[in-house]
Structure formats: structure tokens, C-alpha cells
């Protein structure tokens, strides 16, 4: 879907505050509510807007440790990757997972309560996945930037 300037403006505003009423959104974009609502609905139906969520402060819910885990798989086949993906998708500690080019096959992002939880995660979950050959972990010392809004 090709976005026009008004749709981009609407998306920029909704990424900052998805609780804006149609009237408030329309006022900020400079259009009447009905056409504004229609544009939002079009973007929802086209899948541009996938949904609306609450952004939770991970520190306030006890998830102060951010860990990146690089994973190298034993083999490179569709079956191996499919099995690995199914297991990782079912794991709630993994908040992001990317398949990569290069020496690392996949990159996982985890939010955990502490380093002890990382040890449990590694021993009770990750290292039990038979498709994994090698893992390398990096613990974030502090978060410098973490944005959810896309640059439109």
C-alpha cells in the first residue's frame, strides 16, 4: 500500500499515542473525522496497522535484564530451521528473533529478571534444542535507545 502524506501523518501520530480519539486525530492531521477514520480503517484492513498495544515498562514489571543471544545451527535445512522457529516462537522470554546472513544464523532478544534467569533459560531451554550448535550471549549494560515508532 502506497501511503499518502496524510496517512503518514496519521501513522506518526498513532505510533506516539494510539489512544487518540478520531476527533483528536483528525484535528491534528487537519481533516474532518469521517475521512480520517476511513484512512485509519483502510490502513487497518491493508495490514499497515497490525494492532494496538500497551507499551509496558519492562523495569517496572521486573524484567531489567536485556540479553542478545547469537545462535549457530548445526545444519542449514528447511526442516532444521522450521523446528527451531516453532520452539522459539513458543518461548515467552524471546521477544524478538531474526534469521541472519553470515556466521550467526539467528539472533534472539530476551527480557529477563536477572542473570540467574539467563542461566536457567540457557540450561533449561536453549541448550536443550537439538538443532543448536553454538550460542554466544551479550548482556546489555544499559538501554540507550529503544523506540517502537517506525521512521515514516
Automatic annotation (TrEMBL):
A Pfam family annotated for this UniProt entry: HTH_24
Single GO molecular function: sequence-specific DNA binding
Any single GO BP term: response to amino acid
Keywords: DNA-binding, Transcription, Transcription regulation
GO cellular component terms, semicolon-separated: cytosol
Residue span(s) of domain HTH asnC-type: 3-64
InterPro entries in UniProt: ArsR-like_HTH, AsnC-type_HTH_dom, Dimeric_a/b-barrel, Tscrpt_reg_AsnC-like, Tscrpt_reg_AsnC/Lrp_C, Tscrpt_reg_HTH_AsnC-type_CS, WH-like_DNA-bd_sf, WH_DNA-bd_sf
Domain of life of the source: Bacteria
Protein name in UniProt: AsnC family transcriptional regulator
Organism: Thauera aminoaromatica S2
Amino acid at each position: 500500500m502506497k501511503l499518502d502524506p496524510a496517512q503518514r501523518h496519521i501513522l506518526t501520530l498513532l505510533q506516539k499515542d494510539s489512544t487518540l480519539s478520531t476527533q483528536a486525530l483528525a484535528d491534528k492531521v487537519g481533516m474532518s473525522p469521517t475521512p480520517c477514520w476511513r484512512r485509519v480503517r483502510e490502513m487497518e484492513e491493508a495490514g499497515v496497522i497490525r494492532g494496538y498495544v500497551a507499551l509496558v515498562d519492562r523495569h517496572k514489571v521486573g524484567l531489567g535484564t536485556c540479553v542478545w543471544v547469537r545462535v549457530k545451527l548445526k545444519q542449514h535445512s528447511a526442516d532444521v530451521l522450521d523446528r527451531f522457529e516453532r520452539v522459539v516462537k513458543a518461548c515467552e522470554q524471546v521477544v524478538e528473533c531474526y534469521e541472519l546472513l553470515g556466521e550467526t544464523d539467528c539472533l534472539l532478544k530476551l527480557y529477563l529478571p536477572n542473570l540467574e534467569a539467563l542461566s536457567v533459560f540457557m540450561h533449561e531451554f536453549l541448550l536443550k534444542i537439538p538443532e543448536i550448535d553454538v550460542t554466544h550471549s551479550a548482556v546489555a549494560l544499559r538501554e540507550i535507545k529503544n523506540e517502537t515508532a517506525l521512521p515514516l
